[in-house]
């Protein structure tokens, strides 16, 4: 197991380096001049020259990349152009908020996806199976934008049960209860599509195991129905683990829209504002942190997969 983890960690190094190259090149090719964006079009030439030198934008792109990578490896992601403070001052608080939102959504995805998938697998031709299929299809295909607006319209505007957006720090503002109230609507909106996909994959995996010889074999050994179902669910776990890991990575990367719509102060909203301000250091730092989180989650998923099924280690 240790050798397997060491191999996966080693393989993640070129992956992360490739991500840094793509991120840096993509951000550098985005149209617009960050110096003009920050100073304004009528700024004096001396001020423009001084800021261009300070940002290192007067050097060739490969040298800019190597300098940025060297600083990033030492934990220095630069200074935000628009905020005039270290990028980490903005990034880490936002990352904490994104992790809270993604974590809450992931809990909904796991509970809802497993329950819906199991319901469909146990009664595939009955009403529960058809209901499970219809709900998972609706979750996957329903436009997230429309669902989010519908949630706001019903629960925030009409019923006034929950706030429409924003949040407070868990240790400040209204405390944990207030955080939960602000968390419900964005977490549900973000979890919708991953929940539908997880339910469909788990239903197929568990249904395949139940249709095989394993249940008869276990019943012949005298195991009770709950024990048989538990064994079958264990055999379907690798498929669930794989899709759940991908959905968690999707939640970390794909909550930009949800954070923007619900004014949630996470990395997605921060990147959206950084793109509008052409704040290159903030964009590069934000995307790098998300990419590292994505690779880390995949390593954890592979490790869990190898732990459940030892054949994966080879």
Protein model, in words:
This protein has 314 residues and is an all-alpha fold. It has helices spanning 2-29, 34-39, 45-55, 61-73, 87-122, 127-141, 144-158, 175-210, 214-220, 225-254, 256-261, 267-277, 280-308. It has 13 helices and no strands. Helix 5 packs antiparallel against helix 6 (127-141), helix 5 (87-122) runs antiparallel to helix 10 and helix 5 packs parallel to helix 13 (280-308). It is globular, with a radius of gyration of 24 Å.
Secondary structure topology:
Layout: H1 2-29, H2 34-39, H3 45-55, H4 61-73, H5 87-122, H6 127-141, H7 144-158, H8 175-210, H9 214-220, H10 225-254, H11 256-261, H12 267-277, H13 280-308
Helix pairs in contact: 1-13, 5-6, 5-8, 5-10, 5-13, 6-8, 7-8, 8-10, 9-10, 10-13, 12-13
What is the helix/strand order? HHHHHHHHHHHHH
Number of strands: 0
Number of helices: 13
Q: What value does the average pLDDT take? A: 83
Work out the strand percent: under 5%
First-last Cα distance: 10 Å
| Helical content (DSSP H or I, runs of 4+) | over 70%
Secondary structural class: mainly alpha
Poorly predicted spans: none
The main sheet comes to: none
Multimer state: single chain
Q: Shape, please?
A: globular
Taking all Cα atoms into account, the compactness measure Rg is 24 Å
């Amino acid at each position: 197991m240790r050798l397997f983890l060491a191999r996966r960690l080693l393989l993640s190094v070129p992956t992360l380096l490739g991500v840094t190259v793509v991120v840096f090149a993509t951000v550098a090719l985005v149209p617009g001049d960050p110096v003009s964006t920050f100073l304004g079009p009528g700024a004096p030439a001396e001020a423009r020259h001084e800021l261009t030198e300070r940002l290192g934008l007067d050097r060739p792109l490969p040298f800019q990349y190597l300098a940025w990578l060297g600083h990033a490896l030492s934990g220095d992601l630069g200074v935000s152009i628009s905020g005039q403070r270290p990028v980490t001052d903005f990034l880490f608080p936002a990352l904490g908020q994104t992790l809270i939102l993604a974590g809450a959504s992931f809990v909904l995805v796991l509970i809802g996806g497993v329950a819906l998938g199991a319901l469909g697998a146990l009664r595939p031709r009955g009403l529960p199976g058809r209901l499970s299929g219809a709900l998972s299809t609706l979750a996957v295909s329903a436009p997230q934008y429309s669902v989010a607006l519908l949630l706001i319209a019903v629960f925030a505007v009409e019923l006034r049960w929950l706030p429409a957006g924003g949040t407070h720090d868990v240790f400040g503002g209204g405390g944990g209860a207030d955080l939960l109230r602000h968390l419900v609507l964005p977490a549900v909106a973000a979890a919708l599509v991953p929940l539908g996909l997880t339910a469909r994959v788990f239903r197929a995996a568990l249904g395949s195991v139940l249709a095989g010889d394993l249940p008869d074999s276990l019943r012949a050994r005298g195991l009770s129905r709950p024990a048989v179902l538990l064994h079958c669910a264990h055999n379907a776990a690798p498929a669930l683990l794989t899709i759940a890991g991908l959905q968690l990575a999707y939640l970390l990367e794909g909550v930009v829209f949800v954070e923007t719509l619900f004014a949630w102060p996470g990395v997605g909203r921060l990147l959206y504002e950084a793109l509008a301000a052409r704040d290159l250091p903030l964009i590069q730092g934000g995307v790098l942190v998300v990419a590292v989180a994505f690779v880390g989650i995949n390593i954890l998923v592979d490790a869990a997969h190898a732990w459940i099924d030892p054949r994966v280690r080879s």
